[in-house]
Design brief:
Elements lengths: L1 E2 L12 H6 L3 E5 L5 E5 L13 E3 L2 E3 L6 E2 L5 E3 L17 E2 L1 E4 L2 E4 L15 H4 L5 E8 L3 H7 L6 H4 L8 H6 L10 H5 L2 E12 L2 E10 L10 E8 L3 E6 L3 E10 L2 E9 L11 H4 L1 H12 L1 H9 L19 H15 L30
The chain binds FE2/S2 (inorganic) cluster and fe (ii) ion.
Keywords: 2Fe-2S, Iron, Iron-sulfur, Metal-binding, Oxidoreductase
GO molecular function, one term: monooxygenase activity
Organism: Streptomyces griseoviridis
Length: 366
């Protein structure tokens, strides 16, 4: 999947790392503006069609000029002339493509009669406003990346240096979070998870909780409310007073993960800024800062974790990790097709227990 704007009229090749992991593909738009994704190896002698051009609404090979239509069939063989009988097998694979949610979705598995629908959770699908989308790769396994997005209680330990952690987005919305001018620094002090709920609906997990500073433990209402939605195989949507973003997390290979990151405008800004152009500045900035600020801070810790590929049974989870535990359980079921031997709902810290108690409540995963 790529951002809609990424696919332009001219042929384009996916990034290098995709080429190493996948069959080489080329993306472009036909004369009607429809996105087209095709195999990029010319069946004639193997030239890279990504280096070709669009000619007469077909993809023209840069070597001998054979042209391939949007359905993959070869339409012209210039060296045989315009009357040439073109062999049926002279074609390139065409990948099914759909455009939804301002994204281009491609099916690169086995060909089928029909393809599954694209279902984005409503938290992501409902956004009609301005957003910015960025894309990049990180050198770690996708399971580790996904798990890093399923909780935020690492914030005071990983992102405590406010200036380095994309504080502008934090501080700019601090008033909304009720933290006044000190919003950024107060936010990075929140660690305790309260009012934690996790729901499972098919392959979607929804988690809501508040993060509370140590000094506010007696008044959890002062905490920062979060909602995290995860939908298999790799979509995460996070909403709170200062964030509203979606990430699509895709494995490239065992050691690399592709991130598609979308930051939405703050709805409360709309009445003050009618210009969509101006409203696009903050999401654009948020996307760049995410890539340069907090995420490299996360990478410094998670790229070095063991085991490299996350799995059930590898950890001693605590109550606040319920979403992570459910992620691993469902992933196991989807990969292996069998129900897990037992469900591993983490034990909850009951009312009145001491603050440290939850941290000692381990959740076994087998
Ligand atoms: S290699 Fe593509 S036309 Fe010859
Ligand atoms: Fe983080």
């Amino acid at each position: 999947m790529v951002s809609r704007r990424t696919v332009q009229g001219r042929p384009q090749e996916p990034a290098d790392r995709w080429q190493a992991a996948w069959p080489i593909m080329v993306m472009c738009r036909d004369a009607r503006g429809n996105a087209v994704v095709q195999e990029a190896r010319c069946p004639h002698k193997g030239a890279n069609l990504g280096a070709g051009r669009i000619s007469r609404n077909a993809l023209e090979c840069p070597y001998h000029g054979f042209r391939f239509g949007a359905d993959g069939d070869c339409e012209a063989v210039p060296c045989l002339g315009s009357e040439a009988r073109i062999p049926k097998g002279l074609r390139i694979r065409n990948y099914p493509v759909r455009e939804e949610n301002d994204l281009v979705w491609m099916w690169w598995g086995e060909e089928r009669e029909s393809y599954p629908g694209i279902t984005a959770p409503w938290e992501a699908a409902r956004h009609t406003g301005v957003h910015a989308t960025g894309s990049w790769q990180r050198p770690l396994n996708y399971t580790r990346y996904i798990e890093s997005m399923l909780e935020f209680y690492h914030t005071p330990f990983v992102h405590s240096r406010v200036v380095d952690s994309a504080a502008p987005t934090t501080c700019s919305t601090a008033r909304r979070g009720g933290f006044g001018g000190t919003g950024g620094s107060r936010y990075v002090e929140t660690a305790k998870v309260v009012d934690h709920k996790v729901e499972t609906e098919g392959t979607t997990l929804r988690s809501s909780f508040r993060l509370v500073r140590e000094e506010d433990e007696d008044d959890p209402a002062k905490g920062e409310p979060f909602t995290i939605v995860f939908t298999f195989p790799g979509m995460v949507h996070v909403v709170n007073a200062r964030f509203d973003f979606t990430m699509w997390i895709t494995p490239v290979d065992e050691d690399h993960t592709q991130i598609l990151f979308r930051w939405y405008e703050a709805a409360w800004l709309r009445p003050f800024l009618p210009s969509r152009l101006l409203r696009g500045i903050a999401p654009g900035l948020g996307t760049v800062l995410q890539r340069m600020g907090p995420e490299p801070q996360d990478m410094r810790v998670i790229a070095d974790m063991h085991p490299k590929v996350s799995r059930r049974g590898a950890y001693k989870f605590v109550a606040a990790d319920e979403m992570n535990a459910r992620y691993l359980t469902i992933r196991h079921r989807l990969l292996h097709g069998d129900p897990p031997p037992e469900e591993h709902a983490p034990a909850q810290a009951g009312p009145g227990r001491q603050a440290g108690r939850a941290a000692r409540t381990h959740v076994r995963t087998t």
